[in-house]
Design goal:
Largest sheet: none
CATH class of the largest domain: Mainly Alpha
Distance between the termini: 56 Å
Radius of gyration: 20 Å
Helix content: over 70%
CATH architecture of the largest domain: Orthogonal Bundle
Structural class: mainly alpha
CATH superfamily of the largest domain: Tetracycline Repressor, domain 2
Strand content: under 5%
Order of helices and strands: HHHHHHHHH
């Protein structure tokens, strides 16, 4: 039995990915209330084509949220993929703060999607999976640091990861903190990890 994807399936996936990219751009510019019609027009497809790939506007918003989370995760994982466990954990912290603080349309959209997760069951489910994956990744960095001696042992790795992650999340919501306070926070975090 041939399990290779057909050219039709490959084309459908490429179209779906392009529609998500267009929706990310449109939602970033105009908000999540943007109509299906505008997204379809931007993509140069009919509204029916959007319904074919996403079934509903909420389905499109869900797909955009999953993709935005994956893109962010790829960036912070790249920024924290080398070094000691401590360096990796601090890389996660600094890259997350830097990216969200950039105020680019993409990160403004991702922040809006996180916020909308409190009002949408489907977005909440996506957010919960993402938060669990983040905590697991932070925990792995702490455990690596404890094994390599760059983070002190005797601390619960998952609880420490949760503390660090919660601190980062707190820095990402308005009001934003000053660069000086952020620098002091980073110094304190480094001291706590030793």
């Amino acid at each position: 039995m041939n399990t290779a994807p057909t050219s039709r399936a490959v084309a459908a996936e490429a179209t779906r990915a392009r529609l998500i990219d267009v929706a990310i751009t449109r939602f970033a510019a105009d908000g999540l209330e943007t109509s299906f019609d505008l997204v379809a027009a931007d993509a140069g497809v009919s509204k029916g084509a959007l319904y074919h790939h996403f079934a509903s506007k909420q389905g499109l918003v869900d797909a955009v949220y999953r993709e935005a989370i994956q893109r962010h995760a790829a960036r912070v994982v790249a920024a924290s993929s080398t070094g000691t466990g401590r360096e990796r954990l601090l890389g996660l912290v600094s890259s997350s703060i830097e990216l969200y603080s950039s105020s680019t349309p993409f990160y403004q959209l991702l922040s809006r999607l996180h916020d909308a997760g409190s009002r949408s069951p489907s977005l909440a489910a996506i957010s919960e999976r993402s938060q669990r994956n983040q905590l697991d990744y932070f925990t792995a960095a702490v455990e690596r640091g404890q094994r390599d001696g760059s983070i002190r042992t005797g601390l619960d790795p998952e609880a420490l990861a949760l503390l660090v992650r919660a601190s980062v999340l707190g820095l990402l919501v308005p009001p934003r903190v000053s660069p000086q306070l952020l620098s002091r926070f980073t110094t304190l975090l480094e001291d706590l990890l030793q």
